[in-house]
Protein 1
Amino acid sequence: MSPVPNEGNGPAPLAARRSTPARLLEAPGPDRPTLLRMLEAAVRVPDHGRRVPFRFITIEGEARHRLGEELEQIARKRDPDTPPAVLEKDRQRFSRAPLVVAVVAVLDPEDHKIPAQERLLSAGCVCFSLLVAAQAEGFGAQWLTGWPAYDDDVLARLGLSEHERIAGFIHIGTPTAEAPERERPDPRDLLRDWRP
């Protein structure tokens, strides 16, 4: 079957993709069947050697607030002089969107055949595909990391092994406003032809 060209009736779905800030996301989020449908789309990514170097952790309901409380404690331990406004931001970090999916990159050091970078890139592709799948289902979504994605105490609380990393926290919910657009680069400025 040949691909169907875009007939000029508006932007192709990928050309219309944009992030909805987590502060603009509220309930309802996707139910479990919808989330599974989104994840089924998200895992259709390039995966050299079929290693499946990713997995998912959902953070929803009361767990979002509990994780925020733990983040505040960890931030306080990291720097006792952290301003109250910053601590409050950390406490609310996972409380806005009704669902946060942590995409975990699995980087087994025993796997010498596939470079770790390629496995990490596959997990990054999952993050992007999940954003697109969320938008296709009518939800807004934002891919965030921040210091919690790189903090050993946070990773341990989320149950990651020493060879796993957070590729992204994907915040998903119903947008309360239209996702803002921003200026995008012109691909012609980025394109170069290589010639010998």
Protein 2
Amino acid sequence: MKIKKGDTILIIAGKDRGKKGKVLRVHSQDAKIAVEGINILKKHVRPRKSGEKGQVIEIPAPFGVSKAKVVCPKCGKATRVGYKIEGKTKTRMCKSCGAAM
């Protein structure tokens, strides 16, 4: 997958279109990612200990990779990701400005 944990991404489709966030988890087999502050689900948690209260926790749910584009750290644009092979190393690069990511 071209999107990795820690990347900043821009949502290009769906209810959260136009929002930016940082990738928390990558599920490469399902081609899904979980991003902080995007696609939030509410989970109701029961109290475990006596005297503890139940609560509602907000969790970012995974969504499809095709709905996101990586934001280039150099030019700041949402771009596609390419690869550059130099010797034996393969690095990701921005398709718009050519900078290494």
